Amino acid sequence: MASTNCGWCGDRTHMQMVLDPYQLPPELWPRNGHGSSSDHPVYMTAFKCSNENCRRLSIGWTDLYKARPTEAKELLPKQQLNWEPVKARRPEFLDVPPEIAETASEAHACFNIGASRGAVALARSVVEAAAKMKGVTKGNVQAKIEALRDANVISSLTAEASHQIRRDGNSIAHGDIGDEPISADDAEAILEFMDSLLDEIFQRPAKLRRLKERHAERKKGNGGGPGQLPPAPSGGPGRMPPAPGGGPA
Q1: Which residues contact 115 (CB under 8 A, 6 or more apart)?
Q2: How far is CA 127 from CA 31, 101, 111, 190, 230, in A?
Q3: Greatest mean pLDDT among 7-16, 37-46, 69-78
Q4: pLDDT per residue over 22-42, tens digit each?
Q5: Closest CA to 130 of 208, 192, 195, 206
């Protein structure tokens, strides 16, 4: 089965092939400088979303180098396919500063349409912007990550993941786009690293603050917390409050 973000429901899911692949006419195959390439026949077929709340059909297609029709059924699900329809999923990042949240969301949108290099480059920008937002402005991206780690803003494990984003993003940002190809699996892992970084720096602390505030409000509403007696009546300890009308109780 092939993995992708379903163009209907938007979930990251496995797509199950439900029909045998169909070879497109040669005029629709990829072209080289001399016209159609007979070495790259294009196959397409229908896939079903594995999300039980969706189960809708999508079309997956790609060219298969020197593949015979009898081989396409086995080879096609193992390829990085082009999909129709395409839905650019843009997750929200609550409690993250808007300009950083929007860039992180855009990185996911790039990944969902197959723009892996764009996704990684934006993830690198998110790492650097997050460091600046926490007051770390000196040095290059590597120095900023290490400063965040040294200040205990992020863990050593998150710092290592952030360095991976930095290294892959640098090759793209500096024009070395052919040196290290970025696969869809690599880009997806880098986005997971980016999400973890944002969670550790912004989202988790905000969630803990809200939990602490709600706990304090509950204690306040319960008269100061469990085990604490309510305040004594105005008549003083050991005395009953006056009866209605001011007479003796």
Answers
A1: none
A2: 39, 11, 17, 11, 51
A3: 69-78
A4: 999 988 887 655 445 678 899
A5: 195
